[in-house]
Amino acid sequence: MTAVGPRMFNLDRWREILDTLWRNKLRSALTAFSVAWGIFMLVFLLGMGTGLQNGVQKEFSDDATNAVWLFSGRTSMPHDGMPVGRRIIFTNGDVEALDGLIGVDKITGRFFIGDGRPNLMRVANNVGSYDLRSVHPDHLYLENTIILEGRFLNDLDIEERRKVCVIGEPVAQFLFETSAGVTGRWIEINRIPFQVVGVFTDEGGENEREKIYIPITTAQTAFNGADRVHMTMFTMHSEVTVAESKRMADAAVARLAAAHHFSPADTQAVRVRNNVEQFQNFMQIFAGIRWFVLIMGVCSLVAGVIGVSNIMMIAVRERTREIGIRKALGAKPSDIVVSIMQESVFITTVAGYLGLVAGIGGLALIDNLIPPTEMFAHPEVDLSIALGATLLLVIAGALAGLFPARVAARLNPINAMRDG
Predict the structure, then answer these.
(1) Is the same domain home to 160 and 223?
(2) How does DSSP classify residue 88?
(3) What gap in Å lies between CA 367 and CA 362, rounded to an integer?
(4) Same domain, 134 and 252
(5) How do 145-150 and 192-202 pair as beta strands?
(6) What confidence score (pLDDT) does residue 9 get?
(7) Which residues, at least 6 apart from 127, have a Cβ–Cβ distance to it below 8 Å?
(8) Which of 274, 301, 329 is the last residue of a domain?
């Protein structure tokens, strides 16, 4: 065993290996390509799968993943003598009632402004149209909004129906031509003056930053909404399970059904969006994708390794006479085994490294060429996984060369020289 180390790093032996590979350039190139392609596909597919997962997680990062959304709709079932098709209208009282449910952490309602018409914002001669949202203070936590300056809406703003607003950083930059030092200044929203109390940013992308938030009660008063609420959403504790979130959603619908006299089983009266369930479903899908990609990549690697083994068997047959002469001159069986295995390991190591570099380079190129979207962002691969796969490939290369090497070591020198 002690002699294997020096034999593995014998300079003359490496020259012999390189000379053999050079004399069989096409065979060596095809073998190396099959190995490089296997590691490239593994790295590339894993990276693309990660890109899909990053895109979906980025989409969810804008909203709390432990939230349930409730949208008012129309009844589709008769109940207590009430007709089908009756519109359900949430109120401020409904939001307060849901806030009293055990398990509700943060809650907000929304009153939609403008009925689809653009909302115009003006500061001096700067006029723009932005998404205007009327919310409760807890909205800060449901949309993962980050305050850069000033504050978000508070309970006093709701109670006193104050004409205050919190604006996105791009909105401040356009209207005031700066995003700093704008708190306390005034803007016109649909010709109604509002005072800026805060500036925010949002990790959900540029679209989420180009918004303006005002107190829901102020919007109801200023834009003829009475106490109507179009939708409400609430969060639960951060470790909530899918089953718990479903029970909470059912409890919320039951509370609303009792208040508005519709059947709790009527899924059209109140439409439910359960972020907990959706996020869990996406994670399960991507777990399946990762396993599929991993299996496909491993299959590619196995195919490459089998190719190496087959090529080495061919090489042994082609060099039967050479091996016989070496054994006749005193070469030990272990020398023959090490020589064949070295050649196999060299091919898999170099080809595996090239495939790894090509895979990572391809992912970097795609990342630079394709901007992040809602379904795809920043394809990347865990370097430890890639290096582990390459190391495994080297070991597999050694094993791939082991069988041909053992065949070569067992050759009878006299028969080998005669048959060669």
Answers:
(1) yes
(2) P
(3) 9
(4) yes
(5) antiparallel
(6) 55
(7) 120, 121
(8) 274
